């Protein structure tokens, strides 16, 4: 039985050597390997991402649980003070108590409620992509308006995009920043995956640039600053976006900028950064004037390269990093 | 009973081995169990709130514990493979076999990842079944709801037992032990409070459980 729970899990790339300890030098399909602290075995970036998401989920769960426990106690205290009122008849007390218990039962059931497409009223289509569409939708219970991204599973499988969607969903769930489009919830049915995100009515930067043609210095400074803050917030969570362009910079109703479309984003391990010290060495950044030439040669295993060669080497490394 | 795939009493899916070497795994694990998150008073958190319906409380917590086990085990999928874990075990003394009473009536020996997949899929079917875990207001819980919950908890415990016995070092190297311990402490206290797992089933982690129950 292919349950909804395991759909994303089961579609992971399964290396033939999955069960064996991975060699630290082995090239991996699922991203750069990060050494575990015990030094024995490398962990894939997929696992690193899962671990980060699991920790976040559990920490949030306990924060929420403690908060809801306190809220419940507070509701109980208010109930007891109502019941203690001498003017309230016994019949009224019973009604208040019954009402309270029904409300609490409703809260408990809502905590178990599994979000689905039926919980939303689908409105206009606001975008189309390779795997589906983005629709404006209204949550029936709250009347809040969201943008619902609907992705066709079979199409994603066919084009090998499962990892990209997983990365997008994980990042959106993990990063809580004013400069990143918020993910409200995600769910799936037999055919589609759904990402329900905040709706940003201000359009995108591309449209703004086309409409205004040229931005003033102040406007440019403002939008560049907010873009940098957005990129910084995902870098802090060890992800790279890899698709920064005006179309993916959205504006909210107050004109503030938010970064969207994390379909190409990638979890990043520090171990996969190119060896920049080689570049520093070639351009003479880390040469200590007091050192003599022999010592300098023996202290670095890096071959001597011209600046041009070094630049090409660094660019190649950079390309490998985003592949 | 088998309507919900609870299996019959005489089927042995839990197989303690009599001739297995007795290790001191429990003692080793007890040293690590203190690493937890600052998650408030868990003993207080498991108690049935005044005026709450017991079945509602069992239901909401069952879903939470399922999600926790699911996400914790998910982080180990790279290391818990048919090669590394050819049988579902909790140390050398205890082994588990899979039977759901419907599709697989006779207990079968499967690898740990396959066992966990069967187990989590089975639980999810129960959680999604409106006649067992009703979500619509006014729909009552079934008569044997507590029995279903007990079976779910028994099976979730087996995943914890496997993680602690086989993959705890990996959990430590992933810096996840505080998260695992917090979830397991909460799970244990809840199980203890509502007597959801028979004592014999708890044997693989009994040292750990007794230290949790007595200290908290």
TrEMBL record, chain A:
- Spell out the reaction equation it catalyses: L-seryl-[protein] + ATP = O-phospho-L-seryl-[protein] + ADP + H(+); L-threonyl-[protein] + ATP = O-phospho-L-threonyl-[protein] + ADP + H(+)
Q: Which CDD domains match?
A: MobB_NDR_LATS-like
Provide ranges: composition bias, Low complexity: 32-47
Pfam families assigned to the protein according to its UniProt record, in alphabetical order? Pkinase
Write out the residues that bind ATP: 149
**From the record, what ranges are coiled-coil?**
none
Supply the EC number(s): 2.7.11.1
Composition-biased stretches, type Basic and acidic residues, lie in 70-85
Q: Which SMART domains match?
A: S_TKc
Q: Which SUPFAM superfamilies match?
A: Protein kinase-like (PK-like) (SSF56112)
Provide the protein name. Answer: non-specific serine/threonine protein kinase
TrEMBL record, chain B:
| Keyword line | Kinase, Transferase
Highest taxon of the lineage? Eukaryota
Kindly give the SUPFAM superfamilies that the UniProt entry links to this protein: Mob1/phocein (SSF101152)
GO CC terms of this entry: cytoplasm; nucleus
Q: Does the keyword Signal apply?
A: no
* GO MF annotation terms: kinase activity; protein kinase activator activity
Enumerate the residue ranges of region (Disordered). 1-26
Report the record's Gene Ontology biological process terms: signal transduction
Q: What is this protein called?
A: Mps one binder kinase activator-like 1A, putative, expressed
């Amino acid at each position: 039985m292919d349950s909804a729970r395991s759909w994303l899990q089961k579609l992971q790339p399964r290396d033939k050597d999955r069960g064996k300890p991975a060699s630290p030098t082995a090239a991996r399909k699922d991203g750069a390997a990060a050494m575990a602290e015990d030094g024995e075995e490398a962990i894939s970036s997929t696992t690193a991402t899962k671990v980060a998401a699991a920790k976040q989920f559990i920490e949030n769960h306990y924060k929420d649980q403690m908060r809801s426990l306190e809220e419940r106690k507070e509701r109980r205290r208010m109930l007891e003070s109502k019941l203690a009122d001498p003017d309230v008849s016994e019949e009224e007390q019973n009604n208040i108590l019954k009402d309270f218990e029904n409300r609490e039962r409703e809260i408990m059931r809502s905590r178990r409620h599994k979000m689905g497409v039926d919980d939303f009223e689908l409105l206009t289509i606001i975008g189309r992509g390779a795997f589906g569409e983005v629709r404006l939708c209204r949550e029936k219970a709250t009347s809040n308006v969201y943008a619902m991204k609907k992705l066709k599973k079979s199409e994603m499988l066919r084009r090998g995009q499962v990892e990209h969607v997983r990365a997008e969903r994980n990042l959106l769930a993990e990063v809580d920043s004013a400069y990143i489009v918020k993910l409200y919830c995600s769910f799936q049915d037999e055919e589609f995956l759904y990402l329900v995100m905040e709706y940003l009515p201000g359009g995108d930067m591309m449209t703004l640039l086309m409409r205004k043609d040229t931005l003033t210095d102040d406007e440019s400074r403002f939008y560049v600053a907010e873009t940098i803050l957005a990129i910084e917030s995902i870098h802090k969570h060890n992800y790279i976006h890899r698709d920064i362009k005006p179309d993916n910079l959205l504006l909210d109703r107050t004109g503030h900028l938010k970064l969207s479309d994390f379909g190409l984003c990638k979890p990043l391990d520090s171990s996969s950064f190119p060896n920049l010290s080689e570049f520093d060495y070639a351009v003479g950044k880390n040469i200590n004037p007091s050192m003599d030439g022999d010592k300098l040669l023996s202290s670095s295993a890096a071959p001597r390269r011209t600046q041009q060669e070094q630049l090409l080497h660094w660019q190649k490394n950079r390309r490998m990093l985003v592949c | 009973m088998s309507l919900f795939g609870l299996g019959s009493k005489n089927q042995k899916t839990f197989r303690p081995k009599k001739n297995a070497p007795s290790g001191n795994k429990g003692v080793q694990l007890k040293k690590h169990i203190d690493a937890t998150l600052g998650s408030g008073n868990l003993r207080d958190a498991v108690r049935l709130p005044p005026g709450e319906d017991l079945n509602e409380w069992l239901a909401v917590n069952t879903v939470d514990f399922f999600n926790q086990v699911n996400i914790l085990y998910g982080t180990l999928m790279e290391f818990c493979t048919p090669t590394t874990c050819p049988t579902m075990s909790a140390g050398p003394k205890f082994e588990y076999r899979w039977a759901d009473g419907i599709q697989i009536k006779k207990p079968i020996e499967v690898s740990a990842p396959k066992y966990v997949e069967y187990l989590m899929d089975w639980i999810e079917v129960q959680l999604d079944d409106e006649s067992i875990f009703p979500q619509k207001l006014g729909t009552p819980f079934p008569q044997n709801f507590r029995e279903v919950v007990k079976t779910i908890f028994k099976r979730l415990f087996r995943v914890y037992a496997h993680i602690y016995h086989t993959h705890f070092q990996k959990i430590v190297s992933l810096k996840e032990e505080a998260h695992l311990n917090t979830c397991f402490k909460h799970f244990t206290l809840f199980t203890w409070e509502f007597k959801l797992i028979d004592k014999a089933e708890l044997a693989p982690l009994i040292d750990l459980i007794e230290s949790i129950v007595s200290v908290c």
